[in-house]
C-alpha cells in the first residue's frame, strides 16, 4: 500500500522493460549517467519515450531560451530537482551562476529579449495560461512570434510534468543542488 510516508524508489535498469532499458542505455551514453528523473519515468512502459519525444521536439526557440523557460517554470512550481538539473544545463548553455539566479528570480536584466521571455513564461505558469495582456504584448514586441508562443506553452507543459512528478515523489536529486533564492 502507498501512503503519504511512502518512499518512492528510482528503478534500476533491471527493474524496467527491455524497451526502457534501451532508452536508459542511450541516455547514459548521451548524458554520461542516467538522471533519476528519467529513470523514474521508466517505471511506466511508455512514459519515458513519450516524455523524451515531447521534450525533445523541434522548436523555434534557441537552447538558451528553452533553458529560461525550464528554470522559470521549475522555480514557480517549486521543483528543486528541475531547478538543480537546469542550473547545470543552463551553465552548459552559457549562463553564469548570477544570470541563472536572476532568471529563477523572474527577470533577465542582462538581456531585454530574454527578460520579456522570463516575464511572459512566469505569467503563463502562474496564471494557468492566462498571461497578462501587457506581458504578452511585451513578448511579441521583443520579437517573438505566435509560433514561438506555442513553443513556450509546450515547453512549460513538458517541464511542469517533470516538476509535478518530482514534487510528488521527492526521489534523490542527482545534480549539484541549486542555490536557494
What would a concise description of this structure say?
This protein has helices at 18-31, 36-41, 47-55, 63-76, 80-92, 97-105, 112-126, 133-141, 146-169. With 181 residues, it is mainly alpha-helical. Helix 4 (63-76) runs antiparallel to helix 5 (80-92), helix 4 (63-76) crosses helix 6 (97-105) and helix 4 packs across helix 9.
Q: What is Rg?
A: 17 Å
Envelope shape: globular
**Full CATH superfamily name of the largest domain:** AhpD-like
Series of secondary-structure elements, N-terminal to C-terminal: HHHHHHHHH
N-to-C CA distance: 37 Å
Q: Approximately how much beta-strand content do the residues carry?
A: under 5%
Number of domains: 2
Plain-language structure description:
The chain is mainly α and 181 residues long. It has two domains: 13-55, no CATH class; 63-169, AhpD-like (Up-down Bundle), CATH 1.20.1290.10. It is 62% helix and 0% strand. Helix 4 packs parallel to helix 7 and helix 4 crosses helix 9 (146-169). The longest helix has 24 residues, at 146-169. The model has no long low-confidence stretch (mean pLDDT 96).
